[in-house]
Structures are given as structure tokens and as C-alpha cells.
Amino acid sequence: MVAEPTDDEPTPTPVDEATVTPTDGATPTPSDNPDYDGDGILNDKDNCPMVANSGQEDMDEDTIGDACDACPYDSYNDYDNDGECGDADNCADVPNSDQSDMDGDGIGDECDATPVDCNAQCASGGFGEFLGDNLDERSCQETAQEEAPECNTLCIYTQVYSWTWGDYNSYSCCCKYSETFACSDCPGENPECPDPEVVCTWTPS
Ligand SMILES: [Ca+2]
Ligand SMILES: [Ca+2]
Ligand SMILES: [Ca+2]
Ligand SMILES: [Ca+2]
Questions:
Q1: Cα(49) to centroid of ligand 3, in Å?
Q2: pTM (2 decimals)?
Q3: Which protein residues have their CB within 5 A of the ion that is ligand 4?
Q4: Over the stretch 127-186, which tens digit does the pLDDT of each residue have?
Q5: What is the dihedral angle through the alpha carbons of 79, 84, 87, 90, rounded to the nearest 10 degrees?
Q6: How many whole angstroms from 49 Cα to the centroid of ligand 1?
Q7: How many domains does the chain have?
Q8: By three-state DSSP, how is residue 93 classified?
Q9: What is the CA(89)–ligand 2 centre distance, in A?
Q10: Which of 4, 66, 106, 175 has the fewest CB atoms in 10 Å of its CB?
Q11: Structural domain for 139, as ranges
């Protein structure tokens, strides 16, 4: 059996707002008191109305008192909103909450045009020359080419070290190492480099 709607349902009675009073323990607000923090500075003049700071110190002059300023030395108050105040952020204009800095130069990877010391990277890999950054393998090899001295075999080794991070960031170092082998019975000796993988040129006399 389906219940029929009835006309005698009790009607909710709107609460008369004028009768609502704050309950015990309600947190007072600055509007309840002209000097909420009791520091002698009225709220409308107080640069920290919720924190007693009678001296009103404001080192970065952003009208937020030091006592309640999350970034007391940064008037832009973490402009890029990455959680690091501008005075401590190694990329003040780019969100980089991890603050990663591969080369340790104080400029974060996200805003560092050369985030890796390629000279050091090439040297650590046994490649004496750094030829250029952000070259692909082919361009690196082409850049590394040079003529062998007459009656010599020149072996040119290249290596591209690359890094990627975040969604779009990458960087690479093109490194070169070369060896020259003189031909005692020029031409004819050492026509090829000892490692078949290397880029090699041989200039006969
Ligand atoms: Ca205050
Ligand atoms: Ca301030
Ligand atoms: Ca940043
Ligand atoms: Ca850096």
C-alpha cells in the first residue's frame, strides 16, 4: 500500500536570525574589538591586527607587519606561489618547489640557461672537449669532425650527455675526445680506428 501525501505534515519554521546568539566558545573576530591583539594599535591601523606588534616593523614595506608576514623579506610575497619566498627562491619568477640546482650555482634548474657544467661533465667522462650544449647526436658528431693530419688516422669519439626534468625541460652536453695515429708506412697503416663504433676519418697522403 502506497502512502498518500497528507496535508498535515509539520511545516519547518524558519529560524528568526535576530534570536541567534553566539554560542559559548565562539572565536571573537577583530570586528568585535577595535584593538583585537591589544598592542595599542587599532585594528584599522594595525599591520598585524591579530598579532601583538606594537613596533609595527615591516622590513619589506609591503604593509604586512613582520610579525604576521610569511615572507618578511619579500615584498612580492612568493610571486610564483611555489612555497619559497622570493628572497630565498632560486627561481623567483618560476614555480619550482623542489629548488633543484644541478650545478650548484644558486640558479635553479628551471631558470638556469646552463643548468649543468658541461666542461666538468665532459672531463669527468674522459672527453676533453666540450663542443656545445643542446646538440643532438648527429649534430654533435658533425661538429666534432675535423681533418686528420697528413699520414695520420684520426679517431674522433663523441658523447652526448642529456638530462630531462619536469614536463618540458631538457639539457645536454656534446663532448669530444680524439686520438691521432701516425702511419709508419704512410699510407696504409692504421686506416681505421681501433674501435669500430667511433667516427673515424683517414686522410691518405
Ligand atoms: Ca598587531
Ligand atoms: Ca612585510
Ligand atoms: Ca620559484
Ligand atoms: Ca643552477
A1: 29
A2: 0.64
A3: 101, 103, 105, 107, 112
A4: 999 999 999 999 999 999 988 787 777 888 999 999 998 888 899 999 999 988 776 656
A5: -100
A6: 4
A7: 1
A8: coil
A9: 17
A10: 4
A11: 127-205
